[in-house]
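Complex record, two chains
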Amino acid sequence: MLRFLLNRLLTAIPTLLIIATLAFALLHATPGGPFDSAKRMPPAIQASIEAKYHLNEPLWRQYARYLGDLAHGDLGPSYQYRDTSVNSLIRQGFPVDATIGVCALLLALLVGGTAGILAALHRNTSADYVPMFFAALGISLPTFIIGPMLILVFAIRLHWLPSGDWVTGSVRYLVLPVVALALPYTAYIARMVRGAAIEVMASPFIRTARAKGMPPRTVILRHALRPILTPLVSFLGPAFAGMLTGSIIIESVFGLPGIGRYFVQGAVNRDYTLVVGITVLYGVLIIVFNLLADLCYAWLDPRVRLHS
Amino acid sequence: MKRLPALVAAVLAACSGGGMDAPAPSAIQVGTALAADQSMERGLNAMPRTLDPTLLTDQDGQAVVDDLFEGLTAIGPNDDIVPGVASSWEVSADGKTWIFHLRPTARWSNGDPVTAADFVYAWRREVDPKTGAEYAAALAPLVNATAIASGQAPVESLGVNAIDDHTLRVTLVSPTPYLLSVVADSYFQPLPRATIERYGDSWTRPEHMVSNGPYVLTELIVGDRITLTKNPMYWAAKDVRVTRVNCYPLYTDLQVSRFIAGDIQFGSYFPGVQYRWLKSQLGDQVVTGPYLGVQMLAFNMVDPPFANNRNLRLALSMALDRNILVKLTQGMNPAAYSIVPALPGYTPQLPAWASWSDDKRHAEARRLYAAAGYSKAHPLKVQLDYPTDDNNRDIMTALAAIWRINLGADVEPYNEEFRVLQQNLLLHKPVLFWDSWIGDFPDPFTFVQLAQKDNPQNYGRFNDPRFEALLTAAANEPDNAKRYGYFEQSEQLLNQEAVFLPMVYYTSRHLIKPYIKGWHYNLQDRIPTRYLHVLEHEGR
C-alpha cells in the first residue's frame, strides 16, 4: 500500500512537469502578448514592463525561472490583474469552486444514487420511468439553459433567492449554483447507478444472499452497494476534479468569483502565469482524485490489488 | 466562450417574452423623500485590471477610481468639469503655464493633507518608464513627458512643480484648452507616496489603500465585487448621499438579469440585441445617450489596393448604406460619416454626399469604383480583418453584402482574436480593417490625432504634410475658436482623402432604477456615485 502510494506520487512529478511544459509552450506560441492593447506605449515603457515580468529574457530562461518558482509553490504574478499574484487569485477563487463543487457532488450522489437504486429495484414501474425521464432531461439540458431558467423562476419571478453573487457562508447564495451544477451530474449518476444496480442485483451472490433469507435492506447495504458504487468511482475521480476547478458556465451565469472564469479570461488575455498555474492545479487535482479513486476501488472490491 | 452570453441572453429573452414577464416599471413605487438606506449596487462590464490610477487601462477601472480619487478637477454632475482638489486656477497668456491653487481642506482618507507634492509624485510616477504605465502617453501635453517616457530625460524634468504645499505649476508643450478635462482623469490624480513606498504593488489592497476621493475601498474580491464606503475625510463629504456602493463586474447579459431581479440598481451596459425588448419591458429604466466613440474601418494607405487610390476608398465609403448598420443596432447607434462625434462647441464636418439620396450616392460610388479600375467583371477582392465578436460579425457580414450589391465588390470578412489582430496591425498586414476609438477627452483633437504621422495608433500609416501642418497650427493656437477651425479643416481633409470609413457612433447604455436619481448624460459616460441618491421606494 505504502509502496503503491509512493510509486504513484513519484510518477506524478514527471506528469506535472509535462503538463506545465506543454501549457507554457502552447501559451507562448500563441500570437499576441499580455500587454498588447489598442493604445500602443512608448518602447521604453514596453521594455520596462517586459523586464519587470522577465518577458525580455529568452524563452528557455523564462521557463527555467517559472519551474524554479513553481518548485517553491510560487505561481508568479498575474499579468492581467497587475497588483495580484496567481497564488492569491487561486487562494481566493478555489474555495468558492470547492464549496460549490463539494455541495453539488454530495447533492448529486444523494439524489442520483437514491433515484438510481430505487429505479433499479422497481424496474419498469413509474418509480423507474419518472426518475429516468428527469435523468434524460438533466443530461440533455445544458447548464447554460438550466442556470438562467433557475434565475428566471427563483430570483426574478419569485424573489426567493439572489440571482447570483457570492457571500461566504451564506446558504442563500449557494442554492441556485449548486443545484444548476448538480443537476447534470445527478442525472448521470442516477442512470449509471441504475444500470450497475440492475446488473448487480441479478448476480449469483445476491441471489444466494436472498436465498439465505436476508432482508432486502441488508442485501442492498451489505452486499450490493459496494459493487454498485465501483463504476461510479471511476467516473467521480476526474468529474470531481472538474467540479472543484470550477465550471466556467456556472461561474458566468451566476457571476461567481471562481477560477474557471480566471482560466478562460487568462487565456484570452495571454495571462501566461495564470493559465499555467490553473492548469497545473487541475493536473494535481486529477492525479490526487485518480489516486483516491484507485484506493476506493481496493476498498470496494477486494479483488483489486494495489501493488499490481 | 464568446457564444455563452448571447445564448444566455437569448434564453432569458425568449423565456421572458413567453409569458414570464419582468416586473413592469410601474411595479416600483417611488416616493420623493430620500430612502433611509443610501446604499446601492452598480454593475461593471468587467473586473478592473487594477485600481492603481497610474496603471489603469480600462473604463471600468476609471469608473471605480472616479469614486476613490479626485484630481485637480472632477467630472461634474451635469456633463461639466468642476473644481476638485484645486479650488481655483489661472493660465498664462500663451496658454502654456497653469497655476492651480489646492484647497487646504482636501485630505487623504488617513487624515493627511493632500498637497501639491502628491500630484508631482503621481505625475512623475506615471511617465517614469520604471513604473511601466501603459497609458503614460496621457501626460503628453506636459513639458518633457514624452521624452521621459522614452527614457531620454530625467523624471525631475517633467513640467510640473510644487510652488508650495497648496500651489502647483503645470508647464505645457503647447496651449491645451482641454487640460481641465484631462486632469480629472485617473492618470492625473494625486497618489499617497508613503503608502505606495511602504506596500509596493499591494498598496491597492483594501487593508492598505489610502485615497482622497468621496469613497474608500473596503473590500475587493477579484471577479466578484468591489465595495466602497463613504470617506468621512473627503472635503465635500456632506454632499455625498450614497454611503456604500458595491460594484459587480458582470457580463452584460448578467447585468440584465441582475437588474431585473433587483440585485443591482445601476447597470453600466446591456447587449444591443436586447435593446427593444428591454425598452418594452423596462421603459424609462433603459437609458441611452451620446458617447464619445466611433466605430469605423481603416485603410492601409501604403500598400495596394488602397494606396494612392482615393477613388476606391471613397467608393467603398459612399456605397455603404449606414442606415442598415443603424438598423442592426436596433436604432441605438447613430450613423457616422466622419470620425469626430458631435462635441460641445464643435460641429462635425460631414462630407456633402452624406445628405444625398441613396440612388445618387450609389451612382457616384459606382463611378468612382469604375474610375479606380474595378467593375463587376473585374471586382475588388479584399479581406476585411476584424476582432472576433458576435456584434462585429453581424456588421461585417452586412458590409460585405452591401458592397456586393452596390458595387459588385468581393469583400471577405475575416475574424481574428483581438490580440492577434493587434499584432498583425503592428506588422501592417491587414489592408482593410476594423477600428474604433473612444475619445480620452471631449475635444476633436482626440479623434483627428489618430491620423497623425507619428501617432502609434495610425495603423493605416496616413501621411499628408497638409494634415500635419493643420494639426501643428492647432497645437500652437491659444484661441480655441481658431483652434477648432484648424480641426474642422483637418477633418475635411480626412473626409476628402477617405482615410477612415466611419460607420456608427457609440452610445452609452445604462439600466437605472427609477428611484436612483442624480445621474446625468455624460459624453465620457462617467457617472460618479457621489452625485447619486436613492429615493424612498417599494419594490425592487
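Note: The mean pLDDT of chain A is 86.
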